[in-house]
Design a protein that fits this description.
The complex is a heterodimer of chains A (14) and B (257). Chain A is mainly α and 14 residues long. Chain A is 86% helix and 0% strand. The longest helix of chain A has 12 residues. Chain B is mainly β and 257 residues long. In chain B, strand 2 and strand 3 form a beta hairpin. In chain B, 37% of the residues are buried. The chains are: A mainly alpha (14), B mainly beta (257).
């Protein structure tokens, strides 16, 4: 699921 | 020793209603400054961030930081045993494996104590980046809940489009299409009835109806909700929790709709 990946990436990048 | 006493115990009951459908379990990080909870929902599609400041409690003591992993289904069962006008206290010893909930009736004639086992949760440390949002929309929370509910009859997604004129919510599906436009309000008697749009750039994004509807479970916490949007970053749906803190939900935009 791409939305899941986007969200995880957004919060992990910080 | 950790102890947090809230005269307006109903707020804690409402917080539980606002998170229990999204999270099965979560860690409550208790520190000197207050209580924080940050967790991805069960399907990792949204993130819940809860902040309860110590100043909002009638009594707050936290000698050393503790992380309390709680099963929210169990916690919800326990909080259902509290009446709406009960005073609620949460307390735990520093290295305890249980948390105690104390419910006092306003006249102190009934005092109930419930002890719940804590869990060891291995949760990812997540950081929420500082983001400048292109559009910040404030609207009555009941109105937002109504829009999400009404549009969910049309499709699985809601398109939120914000311009300087106002905000438009749309959905499309087998039965047809739906469009709801809210204009910025002029002067209103009550601040909570206002629709306020603070826009730097117009933004249009698509979100899952199911999740927006789950976020609206927080409606009883606050008469207003704040939506923050920028292209390609998660939407933030924020409800204030009285004077005590806030709950924020983050939801990634739908891709390829």
């Amino acid at each position: 699921n791409t939305e899941q990946e986007e969200l995880e990436e957004y919060f992990k990048d910080s | 020793m950790f102890e947090a006493r809230l005269v307006q115990g109903s707020l804690l009951k409402k917080v539980m209603e606002a998170i229990k459908d999204l999270l099965n379990e979560a860690s409550f990080d208790c520190a000197h400054s207050g209580i924080l909870l940050q967790a991805m929902d069960n399907s990792h599609v949204s993130l819940v961030s809860l902040n309860l400041r110590k100043e909002g409690f009638d009594k707050y003591r936290c000698d050393r930081n503790i992380v309390m992993g709680m099963n929210l289904t169990s916690m919800s069962k326990i909080l259902k045993c509290a009446s709406n006008d009960d005073i609620i206290t949460m307390k735990a010893q520093d290295s305890a494996d249980t948390v105690t909930f104390v419910f006092e009736s306003p006249n102190q004639e009934k005092v109930s104590e419930y002890e719940m086992k804590l869990m060891n949760l291995d949760q990812d440390q997540l950081g929420i980046p500082e983001t400048e949002y292109c559009c910040i929309i404030k609207l009555p929370s009941g109105e937002f809940a109504r829009i999400c509910r009404d549009l969910s009859q049309f499709g699985e997604s809601i398109v939120i489009s914000c311009t300087k004129e106002g905000v438009k919510f749309s959905a499309a599906g087998d039965i047809g299409t739906a469009n709801i436009k809210l204009a910025q309000t002029g002067t209103v008697d009550k601040e909570e009835d206002a629709v306020i749009v603070d826009m730097q750039e117009p933004v249009t994004l698509t979100f899952s109806c199911k999740y927006l509807n789950m976020f609206t479970k927080a409606t009883p916490l606050s008469p207003q909700v704040c939506l923050s949007m920028s292209p390609d970053v998660p939407l933030v749906v924020e409800y204030k929790i009285g004077e005590i803190g806030h709950i924020r939900y983050y939801l990634a935009p739908r891709i390829g709709d």
